[in-house]
């Protein structure tokens, strides 16, 4: 409709100049045409025509007033009223829009009668009929669109409430399960250890043999509790890692791929990625999920490449996209994130493992998020076919996978 206004204005001006090139009104007609075109164009450029504000009504009033003057001077400009009908219906309240449409229709009829030079029933009945039909259709479509918007809003709100309810129920169920597991295993075991150690303390001097038996039983219970704790940690690890890190990354890429985004996965690990510690594999998987979520939600990219490279001294995860990019140097110090809230979480995970996070991007040139995690003796994967190194065990007792070894103090 906006384009048709400029087209009709140009056609009316050309028609007037062709028929009245030497008319004394010509300079005024040309000047007023330029004015109304500039006012209309400025309103579009500044977005006034699309916002229901006081400025929009002032803009529409100014356009209509200049158009009325043009139509009085040159009736051929009357057909510019057609896009003004719809502009008024879209921007004004219904009653005010109907009043404006009625006034515009009357001016069109008078202008056409003036051009015809005689009283023509077609000119008296045709334009009002067209205006009534067009207005009724527009108002009906607006009501249907409003009902659809309300329905969509209700569906979105219901879906969010249902998802939140399901998350709450799932969280409560998982908390209840863990609390029962901890109570029935770890808590009971710790209580038994406490009683055995207290009993050993009471008889330590009177019956050393019995005291040592109590301590031995407490140590056996501690070992059992350690096994249960390892089971909890294993159960809470990402489910995708059950098939290995490489397959887990491919599964994440498949979930993030869709109509607008294609994600490719490249793995160069010589088959050693699955021997990385669980916490490193879990961190790499979460980093990939966060980076791809940023790509999907903020970059507008059509393709992304996820690359996992396992070197001798570090493991590197790169996520590159061909999206809109950004300027890392323009970020203020202490910014909460880049293209969303995923970068701070990624940076925290990398920092916990002693690694580094690198952001490479420029506006319009895509972005690369690179996470490098060092393979220290505590985190590194063993070379293929080599025996486990006792010194390579992590200091945390929960990550000690040998049930016959006591955790280091």
From TrEMBL:
Functional note: Member of the two-component regulatory system NreB/NreC involved in the control of dissimilatory nitrate/nitrite reduction in response to oxygen. NreB functions as a direct oxygen sensor histidine kinase which is autophosphorylated, in the absence of oxygen, probably at the conserved histidine residue, and transfers its phosphate group probably to a conserved aspartate residue of NreC. NreB/NreC activates the expression of the nitrate (narGHJI) and nitrite (nir) reductase operons, as well as the putative nitrate transporter gene narT.
Annotated Histidine kinase domain residues: 177-377
Organism the protein comes from: Streptomyces endophyticus
InterPro entries: HATPase_C_sf (IPR036890), HATPase_dom (IPR003594), His_kinase_dom (IPR005467), Sensor_HK_TwoCompSys (IPR050482), Sig_transdc_His_kin-like_C (IPR004358), Sig_transdc_His_kin_sub3_dim/P (IPR011712), Sig_transdc_His_kinase_ChrS (IPR017205)
The protein's required cofactors: [4Fe-4S] cluster
EC number: 2.7.13.3
First-tier enzyme category under EC: transferase
Superkingdom as given in the UniProt entry: Bacteria
TM stretches of this protein: 29-49, 58-86, 92-111, 123-141
Residue ranges with Polar residues bias: 393-409
Signal peptide: none
Protein name: Oxygen sensor histidine kinase NreB
């Amino acid at each position: 409709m906006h384009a048709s206004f400029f087209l009709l204005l140009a056609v009316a001006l050309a028609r007037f100049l062709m028929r009245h090139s030497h008319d004394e009104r010509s300079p005024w007609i040309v000047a007023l045409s330029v004015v109304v075109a500039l006012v209309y164009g400025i309103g579009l450029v500044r977005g006034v025509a699309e916002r229901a504000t006081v400025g929009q009504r002032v803009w529409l009033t100014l356009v209509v007033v200049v158009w009325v003057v043009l139509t009085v001077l040159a009736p051929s400009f009357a057909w510019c009223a057609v896009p003004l009908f719809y502009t008024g219906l879209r921007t004004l309240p219904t009653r005010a829009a109907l009043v404006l449409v009625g006034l515009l229709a009357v001016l069109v009829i008078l202008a056409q009668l003036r051009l015809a030079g005689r009283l023509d029933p077609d000119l008296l009945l045709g334009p009002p009929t067209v205006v009534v039909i067009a207005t009724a259709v527009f108002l009906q479509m607006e009501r249907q669109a409003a009902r659809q918007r309300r329905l969509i809003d209700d569906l979105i709100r219901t879906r969010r409430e249902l998802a939140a309810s399901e998350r709450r129920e799932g969280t409560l169920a998982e908390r209840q399960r863990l609390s029962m597991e901890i109570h029935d295993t770890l808590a009971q075991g710790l209580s038994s250890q406490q009683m055995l150690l207290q009993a050993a303390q009471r008889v330590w001097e009177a019956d050393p043999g019995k005291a040592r038996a109590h301590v031995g039983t407490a140590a056996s219970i501690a070992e059992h509790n350690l096994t249960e704790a390892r089971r909890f940690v294993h159960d809470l690890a990402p489910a995708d890692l059950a098939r290995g890190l490489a397959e887990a990354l491919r599964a994440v890429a498949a979930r993030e791929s869709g109509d607008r985004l294609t994600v490719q996965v490249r793995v160069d690990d010589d088959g050693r990625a699955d021997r990385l510690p669980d916490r490193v594999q879990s961190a790499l998987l979460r980093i990939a999920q966060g980076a791809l979520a940023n790509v999907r939600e903020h970059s507008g990219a059509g393709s992304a490449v996820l690359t996992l490279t396992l070197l001798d001294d570090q493991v590197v995860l790169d996520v590159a996209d061909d999206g809109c990019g950004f300027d890392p140097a323009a970020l203020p110090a202490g910014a909460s994130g880049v293209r969303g809230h995923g970068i701070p979480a990624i940076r925290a995970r990398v920092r916990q493992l002693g690694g580094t996070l690198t952001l490479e991007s420029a506006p319009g040139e895509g972005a690369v998020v690179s996470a490098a995690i060092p393979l220290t003796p505590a985190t590194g994967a063993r070379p293929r076919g080599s025996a486990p190194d006792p010194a390579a065990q992590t200091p945390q007792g929960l990550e000690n996978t040998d049930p016959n070894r006591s955790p280091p103090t």
